[in-house]
Design brief:
Elements: H1 3-13, E1 17-19, H2 20-25, H3 30-38, E2 43-46, E3 49-51, H4 59-66, E4 71-72, H5 74-80, E5 92-96, H6 102-106, E6 110-114, H7 116-119, E7 123-127, E8 133-137, H8 139-147, H9 155-167, H10 173-183, H11 186-196
Parallel strand pairs: 5-6
Antiparallel strand pairs: 1-3, 2-3, 4-5, 7-8
Helix pairs in contact: 5-8, 8-9, 8-10, 10-11
Length: 197
């Protein structure tokens, strides 16, 4: 299979939205992208992101494609995990402390910074509403993050998320309590669990 065929397969697999990072990871030469752009098969959305004419824009996938360090978190993660019906007006991401946030803020993201050693803790692969893979914190980590008073997550949203979580079969209470102790919100988590379980 030549580079053009590989790129066509990737475009089809991703429903017309591709990232340069994915293309190069498959060993496809970047010049192939340029050729597709010249021929009108792709257009540049922004640096590192290309789409076919008429394809839909998957904003979460595109934003994370631009900045792989950013992990969807807090209210956004609750939405991804179906613990909230409220689609975020502004996506929330978490980055390690010291990371330059200017570009993310220009993209209208709410940015939370945390200790580097906590940044990758609890990362799972979630799906955008269009079925594309994104990095997001797991449900237990997300619930604990929402209880941190510095993060200013709506109380009603958090309460609803805990109700949905405790009603699920696939909950992991020991993991939730482990995160809660680590992030210093164990008393708050216990209060929710005492009421809801």
């Amino acid at each position: 299979m030549n580079d053009a065929e590989k790129l066509n397969a990737l475009i089809e697999k991703n429903d017309g939205l591709i990232l340069t990072r994915e293309v190069t990871s498959l060993g496809i030469h970047r010049q192939t992208i340029a050729t597709f752009v010249e021929n009108g098969k792709l257009s540049k959305v922004r640096a590192g992101v290309y789409s076919t004419p008429g394809s839909f824009d998957d904003e979460m996938y595109r934003l994370q494609g631009i900045c792989r360090v950013a992990i969807f978190s807090h209210d956004t993660a609750l939405f991804v995990h179906d613990l909230s019906d409220r689609s975020p007006l502004q996506y929330t991401v978490t980055v390690p402390r010291g990371f330059n946030q200017d570009g993310l803020r220009r993209d209208n993201l709410k940015v939370i910074s945390i200790r580097k050693e906590w940044h990758e803790l609890g990362v799972v692969i979630g799906k955008t509403m269009y079925g594309r893979d994104i990095r997001v914190y797991d449900t237990e980590r997300s619930l604990c993050d929402c209880l941190n008073p510095r993060n200013q997550v709506d109380l009603a949203l958090t309460t609803d998320a805990f109700k949905r979580y405790t009603a699920k079969r696939e909950k992991n209470i020991p993991k939730l309590m482990e995160y809660a102790a680590l992030f210093g919100v164990d008393k708050k988590v216990r209060t929710y669990l005492e009421v809801l379980l």
